[in-house]
Amino acid sequence: MQQISKDYKKQKFDQVLPGGINEWPVVELSRNREAFIKEVAEESIRRIKAQNKSRDALIEEIETTVYREKLRIKRNPWAVDPPDEQKFLNSVKARLVDISNSDEEEEKNRILDQILSEFVIRYADEIAGNFKKSRYRMARSIVTFGFARLLNASRARGFWSIFSTQYTLQDKIHITGQVDQIRTLAKKGTIIMVPTHFSNLDSILIGWVINALGLPAFIYGAGLNLFNIKIFAYFMNSLGAYKVDRRKKNMLYLETLKTYSSMAIQKGCHSLFFPGGTRSRSGQIEKRLKLGLLSTAIEAQRINYQKGKRDELEKIFVVPVTLNYNFVLEAPSLIKQYLKLQGQERYYVENDEYSTSYKISAFLLKFFTKGSDISVSIGRAMDVLGNFVDDQGQSYDKSGRVIDTQEYFTHDGKIISSNPQREDEYTRMLSERIVEEYHKINKVFASHLVAFTAFVIFQRQFKKLDLYNLLRLPEEDLSIPYEEFKTAFESVLAKVHRMYNAGEIGVSPYLTGDVDKIINHGLKNVGMYHAKRPLIKTKRGDITTQDLNLLYYYHNRLSGYNLEKYV
Amino acid sequence: MSKELVGVIGAGSFGTAVSNILAKNVNVLLYARNPETFAEISKSRISAGQKLDDNVEVTNSLEDLPQQCNVLFPVIPSSSFKDMIKELAPHLRPYHMMIHGTKGLHLEYPEKRSHDFVLNKDCLFTMSELIRKETVVVRVGCMAGPNLASELSLGHPAATVIASPFTEVVAKGKSLLRSESFQVYGNSDLRGVELCGVLKNIIAIGSGILSGLGLGENSRGLLVSRGLVEMIYLGKALGGEISSFVGLAGIGDLVATTTSTNSRNYTLGHKIGKGATLDQALSEMDETAEGVNTIKIVKQLAESQGLKPLITDTLHKILFEDMTAEQGVNYLMRYQGNIDINFL
After folding, report:
1. Rounded mean pLDDT of chain A?
2. Domain closes at, from B188, B213, B237
3. Residue A531 and which of A104, A322, B32, B97 are 20 to 30 A apart at CA?
4. Is B88 within a domain?
5. A111-120, B188-197, B330-339: least confident range
């Protein structure tokens, strides 16, 4: 495969830290895992107590936690859950009774502290990653070597080509954008990478990208559900994941999680959050981000300043990343869930299609043996307030004036104050900036554009129907004459190129040249492995769909750009 | 211990009144742009007809303010707000706090307009958004409410709302402004409160016209209540929260400005009701009536957004087209009355 565009970098990157793996903050962290957990637990307890000032409030908080945890165990148990959970909760309950029966103040406090500390340590221990450098090296070579073999075997001819080195993963996954900047900043500063989240594959993909760029391993929050699967658990543990359990919404857990993240960032661990919190169910780029973990970046920056870390290069840098796929394995069930949730808000049990190792292996095989490219766009680094930074870590405002980020945390430019409400507001501002950047660095694929165009035409054809009624139409009724489709497509395409020239969006190199070819490329790739294809050409040459929900899903990728009127 | 120094930008009647209120708690540095005004004020210690408190110092150099003060109160007409803020921007730092008292809007077209450009909400800036856009200052707020400058200067009891998403800005505004004759409330819906102050000026002009025509109190009651409904309708479409409109900055300010001859917008409307043209009325005014510009902006925006603000449209016809005030009233009265309240 030839280089398709000079924007697509296929090069080998050296490790940014020449001293090797032993210098990585994450290695340091895992070496002292026990001590770190203790540190996190102590800090979490301090914070929980600060928020529940009286003993009664604290007891109530714990009672709520016990109640919710019991409910969770009953309703939604997972394989990764520790077997002694029930026993632990019962013992807490018993001890809470002891407290209410006891007359001695000191005794009450002692029991309560004991319960709180047991809770928090359990949580911290569950959350904490288990990075092992030997395993990291191994996983890294399995991923790189294994995938490369698969690629070569499928693309080249003949059995022996399995040993060929003609293709590597970088032919499959194109990394574009601010690659040099992130490498420079990662040497001294702390990177918070915030990618969009469409597929469970993202976690592994991004792990590979980080390694391919020569960056030290990042710690990242991965859904605990993924650890249900042995093979995922293995990879993710070795790649530096810590665990986030979305089922646990109690305050004790959330506070411990945030403390863990904040303290790891303070220690200089590069971190990765999927700030959407969960995979985008609609297929849209995330519009609203979860603020919990994001706020830890701002908090950690403030604490670092309070500790006197003033070197610009030692700052915390937020780097938005978009992952662009032609095909999302989970799309059918994601969009179904989305429509269900939109239709009527209700509790539903999280289950997912990555439920067995077999399914994953089958998918990976498909993915690597057939040609569906993925692109990863690395955005420009920002400080925690969303101002762009240069390669020296210096922040600039929109007019190019230098900004001292520390001053956002002061009233007079000197004394740094901690103000949670202020930081909440900063978090919201940062999340808006991240969403803005997502839209700019998002890459339009031919497949997204055909899906978008076709769905908008269908909406036009059935103007009177709302979304739900439209989606209920039988697919046989839907068809667009090719010429009509092409005219509409050309018009949107022209607008997308204008937006690209204005720096408002990215485009895939396949989006230039002959329009028929672009359309064909798009049709071929959009949701290519689904049993029912979102978009196909009939024998007569018309455009039609086999699954309107899926078409809607892939169409959503380009919603929010006001492109509808160009169709 | 030396008192904190707080900056006020704009030595108009409201800027002066704000300075004097602040001066009860802190030292104030008041900026007057015009060199002659500055010389005049320095000599006479009288600004916009008000005696300056001893704690107020006057300056003619804009950059003195950000250099010496951490909190700034810009109180200038919206038409010169952008120029001022751009001049100020290089001297501003992220630690500055700004609480403005300007009840106007700014409309800005993108630099490059494509052929299919339509005016939309993104082109509309409240003053706090202008500050956010042009400077590094993030901790921004506004003060709004029934604050007729002439009454404030007499020390009559009054209150204001400080709105900001940052509680520290609200708290700071409170501690700076609060005195025995001045109450300060807080609100986190910055955009909503700004819109209250902006949109009520439209209704104030309408109320002035009614009084100029001598149409009495029933008609005013009608205008004020339908006016509030229109404010809420527009305010919601432009991103404010309904609750702010029934607060001090909404209904409180609306009542004050639609009844007081001390209100600039009301006075302007009154002249027009008496038969003056817009140009004549404007030439008789000392200070800006923000409502005129607001009507223009809201009209443009409403057209491109498919909004139908009845009162604003009619006032636009009276001010800028060839409808007379009487015709305007007739037109409104013939209009089919709708449901009284449909937003709660």
Report:
1. 84
2. B188
3. A322
4. yes
5. B330-339
Domain ranges of chain A: 26-127, 130-345+372-433, 443-566
Decide if A478 contacts A550 (C-beta within 8 A). Answer: no
What does the pLDDT look like over B127-144, one tens digit per residue?
999 999 999 999 999 999
What is the reported pLDDT for A345?
Answer: 40
What pLDDT, on a 0 to 100 scale, did the predictor assign at position A6? Answer: 47
pLDDT greater than 80 at residue B118: no
Domain count, chain B: 2
**Both B237 and B271 in a single domain?**
yes
| B56 and B130, same domain (yes or no) | yes
- Known binding positions of B for NAD(+): 10-15, 149, 264
Which of A422, A495, A499 is the best substitution to test chain B (most B C-beta atoms within 10 A)? A422
| pLDDT tens digits along A20-55 | 677 778 888 888 888 999 999 999 999 999 999 899
The CATH number, out of the four listed (3.40.50, 3.40.1130, 3.40.720, 1.10.10), of the domain defined by the range A130-345+372-433 = 3.40.1130
CA B86 from chain centre, in angstroms, equals 20
Catalytic residues of B: 200
Highest-confidence range of A288-292, A301-305, A413-417, by mean pLDDT? A301-305
Higher pLDDT, B109 or B311: B311
Query: Distances in Å between the alpha carbon of B123 and those of A410, A558, B119?
Result: 32, 23, 7
Half-sphere exposure of A106 (CA within 13 A, CB side): 0
Q: What is the pLDDT of residue A347?
A: 37
Whether residues A401 and B94 touch (CB distance < 8 A) is answered with no
Distance between the two ends of chain A, CA-based, in angstroms? 33
Residues of chain A whose beta carbon is less than 8 angstroms from a beta carbon of chain B are: 385, 387, 397-399, 401, 403-405, 407-408, 410-413, 419, 421-422, 425-426, 428-429, 498, 502, 565
**Over the range B156-195, which residues count as b (16 or more CB within 10 Å of their CB) and which as e?**
eebbbbbbbbbbbbbebbeebbeeeebbbbebbbbbbbbb
ipTM over 0.85: yes
Q: Compute the half-sphere exposure of residue B296: CA atoms within 13 Å on the CB side of its CA.
A: 13
CB B168 to CB A419 under 8 A? yes
pLDDT tens-digit map of B45-97: 999 999 999 999 999 999 999 999 999 999 999 999 999 999 999 999 999 99
Q: Which residues of B touch A407 (CB under 8 A)?
A: 93-95
**Known binding residues of B for sn-glycerol 3-phosphate:** 103, 145, 200, 253, 263-265
Domain membership of residue B296 as a residue range: 192-334
d(CA A167, CA B161): 66
Interchain contact, B93 vs A407, CB within 8 Å:
yes
CATH of the domain at B259: 1.10.1040.10
Which chain B residues are closer than 8 Å to A412 by Cβ? 70, 95
Q: Which H, E and C letters describe A346-367, residue by residue?
A: CCCCCCCCCCCHHHHHHHHHHH
- The pLDDT > 90 percentage for chain A reads 47
